[in-house]
């Protein structure tokens, strides 16, 4: 890479601060402009960062300085904003999910291919030392041939802390579409793409009460299932059992476990970049040293990896946190919800390459 890649951000909500902090400490990236429907919120979000322009969305899309649009809007707006960026001839990197529906995500990828621009997508937590060290252990044969995995996320719901949690409980939300991208992206990174799914789902109550902020005490409707469970059948033959819930109170289950014919791994929280990786052996469990991934990573390291991947597709390097992986993960989630609704197994029509491993990178902090 030569000059820094200039980043324009659309959406200055809660998650934007983490991205801004990461971009600010990476010399390969430069934040040049932000846009938000609430311009005051945008101004406040970038107040710590000198020289960042606050623009309208149209102005940001037309700005010739912007190389890549970082799309941090709510999921329902992901496709619309991504398509605007693509129409402006700019690369785009989205917060997860890639779009609210697989159909909208397909439109984004088709438009990007036609415009010859690139699409990346969170979560980039899979590029950290946690998931990558576990993946390295699998690739090195430390647990033998993988047989199965379990993935569990259990929380009473985000309305306890989020001041505007409405979008978690409308179509495009729910525990699977909210947190599933972290877990399923990690499972695909560890075990490869998913071929079919079976599932079941439920919801415990029709309303939720906001627990903090200016709307504290307000009730909001629940329009999606809030407990989803299923089995992902990977193309490799491995089986992953998934539980995603906004209904349970707590769990002591590991976030992810992977079982092989010779041993098992405990993989850290896929919503984090790092954490201990444990492996079973004849003398019990031991912690593996960090052996792969970006050290000290934060949200936005996927944008760094995106920018560092050669544009020339002839080199054979697919984006690690790329559109094809994000589309497959979204397709898996929609297929799981369809399986839960029908009570039958559903074939996942998409696939993707298992993302390339990340060598152990020195600290990006």
UniProtKB/TrEMBL annotation:
Superkingdom of origin organism: Bacteria
InterPro entries found in the cross-reference section: Gfo/Idh/MocA-like_OxRdtase_N, Gfo/Idh/MocA_oxidrdct_glycsds, GFO_IDH_MocA-like_dom, NAD(P)-bd_dom_sf
Gene3D superfamilies, alphabetized: Dihydrodipicolinate Reductase, domain 2 (3.30.360.10), NAD(P)-binding Rossmann-like Domain (3.40.50.720)
GO molecular function, one term: nucleotide binding
Domain Gfo/Idh/MocA-like oxidoreductase N-terminal: 5-119
A Pfam family reported for this protein in Swiss-Prot or TrEMBL: GFO_IDH_MocA
Keyword Oxidoreductase: yes
Cell membrane among keywords: no
Coiled-coil residues: none
Record keywords: Oxidoreductase
Boundaries of every GFO/IDH/MocA-like oxidoreductase domain copy: 132-266
PANTHER family referenced in this protein's UniProt entry, alphabetically: BCDNA.GH03377
Protein name, per record: Putative dehydrogenase
Organism of origin: Nonomuraea jabiensis
């Amino acid at each position: 890479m030569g000059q820094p890649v200039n980043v324009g951000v659309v959406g200055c909500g809660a998650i934007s601060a983490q991205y801004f902090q990461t971009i600010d400490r990476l010399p390969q990236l430069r934040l040049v402009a932000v846009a938000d429907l609430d311009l005051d919120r945008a101004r406040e979000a970038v107040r710590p960062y000198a020289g960042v322009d606050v623009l309208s969305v149209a102005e940001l899309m037309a700005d010739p300085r912007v190389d890549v649009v970082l799309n941090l809007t709510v999921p329902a707006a992901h496709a619309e904003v991504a398509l605007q960026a693509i129409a402006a001839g700019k690369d785009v990197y989205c917060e997860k999910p890639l779009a609210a529906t697989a159909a909208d995500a397909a439109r984004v990828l088709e438009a990007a291919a036609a415009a010859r621009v690139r699409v990346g997508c969170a979560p980039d937590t899979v590029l950290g030392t946690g998931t990558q060290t576990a993946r390295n252990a699998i690739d090195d044969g430390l647990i033998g041939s993988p047989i199965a995995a379990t993935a569990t996320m259990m929380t009473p719901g985000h309305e306890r802390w989020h001041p505007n949690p409405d979008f978690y409980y409308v179509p495009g939300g729910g525990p699977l579409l909210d947190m599933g991208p972290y877990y399923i992206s990690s499972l695909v990174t560890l075990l490869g793409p998913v071929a079919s799914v079976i599932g079941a789902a439920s919801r415990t109550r029709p309303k939720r009460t906001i627990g903090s902020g200016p709307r504290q005490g307000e009730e909001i409707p629940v329009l999606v299932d809030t407990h989803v469970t299923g089995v992902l059948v990977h193309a490799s033959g491995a089986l992953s059992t998934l539980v995603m819930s906004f209904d349970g109170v707590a769990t002591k289950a590991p976030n992810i476990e992977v079982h092989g014919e010779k041993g098992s791994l405990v993989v850290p929280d896929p919503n984090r970049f790092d954490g201990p990786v444990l492996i079973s052996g004849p003398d019990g469990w031991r912690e593996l040293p960090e052996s792969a991934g970006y050290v000290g990573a934060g949200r936005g390291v996927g944008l760094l990896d995106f920018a560092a991947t050669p544009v020339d597709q002839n080199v054979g390097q697919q984006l690690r946190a790329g559109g094809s992986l994000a589309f497959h993960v979204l397709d898996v989630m929609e297929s799981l919800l369809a399986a839960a609704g029908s009570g039958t197994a559903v074939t996942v029509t998409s696939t993707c390459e298992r993302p390339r491993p990340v060598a152990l990178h020195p600290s990006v902090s």
